[in-house]
Design brief:
Layout lengths: L2 E5 L3 H14 L4 E4 H4 L7 E4 L4 H6 L5 E4 L18 E3 L5 H17 L3 H8 L16 E4 L3 H12 L4 E5 L10 E4 L4 H6 L3 E4 L13 H5 L5 E5 L8 H9 L3 E6 L19 E3 L9 H16 L15
Parallel strand pairs: 1-2, 1-3, 3-4, 4-5, 6-7, 6-9, 7-8, 9-10, 10-11, 11-12
Bound molecules: glyoxylic acid.
Length: 311
């Protein structure tokens, strides 16, 4: 019998995911790590930011499935090389993140913001229109999520560029920049900069003074990737010096964002609690179940994490 162990968070959360898998795969044994620990040896683990104790308790895992897109919460030094790790691919997350990016673009351009105050004052006044050509968007990262984000903004009429690690064909109607040498040209035309990069040794701290200084004046930054991509003091300084008009931030070095962090109260910074793309249980579990089935049939399984790249 196939045994699946769930280790995605609190006991309640594990149970909710276990219930969904039990419905989808009634023939499998589904157990929660908080309940069984090492007493049941599972074939597959479904994880989110797992404790290293999981890998000690579960020496017979054949594969690990991460319910999120980012795998930086997994300590790969604890996972034997022979055990592949797969991450979820979209499963309803990309469209949420595209929507979040649109929300950020609305904050950047102030397209609708003035009307909130105007309604309060019962004031009927049409603001000057926004010209999208004045708001070119740059998307850093172009996996399943970056693709949906970029395409959605393009559909709304924003000029969109993307920046990726290595060369590949340009997406339709977008400029593609790759590698560190082309980063300056990408940045100088990104008035709305959106970060959807994976967190790796190369990308940690990438949003720093040097990067921010290359953005055009009055740019806006949207972070929906990971907090450690950003040097917080540099972002605050760029906003306080008036180079950036503001930021929409969903992810932070420490989560929950500490009560005394200046981001909370900064008038030009919008904070959300890591909700830009949440893993939807049913579609995510369906995708993982299908992947396990392929795995059991020795078929290729997509979403394999390359350890050197960390995505
Ligand atoms: C969320 O942050 C994810 O990586 O899916």
């Amino acid at each position: 019998m196939t045994t699946l162990i769930i280790a995605v968070g609190s006991p309640e959360s594990n149970q909710r995911w276990a219930d969904v898998f039990a419905q989808l795969a009634p023939k499998w044994q589904i157990v929660c790590w908080d309940q069984v620990g090492h007493t049941v040896e599972a074939d597959f683990a479904v994880v989110w930011r797992p404790s290293i104790q999981l890998f000690k308790d579960q020496p017979r895992l054949q594969a690990i499935f991460n319910i999120g897109a980012g795998v930086d919460g997994i300590d790969f030094t604890q996972v034997p090389d022979s055990v592949p790790v797969y991450r979820v691919e979209d499963a309803g997350m990309a469209v949420q993140m595209a929507e979040y990016a649109v929300y950020g673009a609305m904050l950047a351009t102030q397209r609708f913001m003035p009307y909130v105050d105007q309604q309060y004052d019962k004031k009927w006044e049409q603001q000057e229109p926004i010209y999208k050509t004045e708001w070119p968007v740059g998307v850093m990262g172009y996996g399943k999520i970056g693709e949906k984000v970029a395409q959605t903004l393009q559909l709304l009429g924003y000029p969109v560029s993307v920046w990726v690690r290595s060369e590949r064909p340009s997406p339709d109607g977008m400029d593609l920049f790759f590698g560190s040498r082309s980063l300056p040209s990408f940045l100088e035309q990104s008035r709305i900069l959106i970060n959807v990069l994976p967190l790796t040794d190369e990308t940690r701290g990438i949003v720093n003074n040097t990067l921010l200084a290359q953005l055009p004046p009055q740019s806006f930054f949207i972070n929906m990737a990971r907090g450690p991509h950003v040097v917080d003091e540099d972002l605050l300084a760029a906003i306080d010096h008036g180079h950036l008009s503001g930021a929409l931030l969903d992810v932070f070095h420490v989560e929950p964002l500490p009560q005394d962090h200046p981001f909370w109260t900064h008038p030009a910074i919008h904070v959300t609690p890591h909700i830009s793309g949440v893993s939807l249980r049913e579609p995510t579990a369906q995708q993982i179940q299908a992947k396990i089935q392929l795995f059991l049939q020795n078929q290729p399984v997509s979403g394999l994490v390359e350890r050197e790249r960390m995505y």
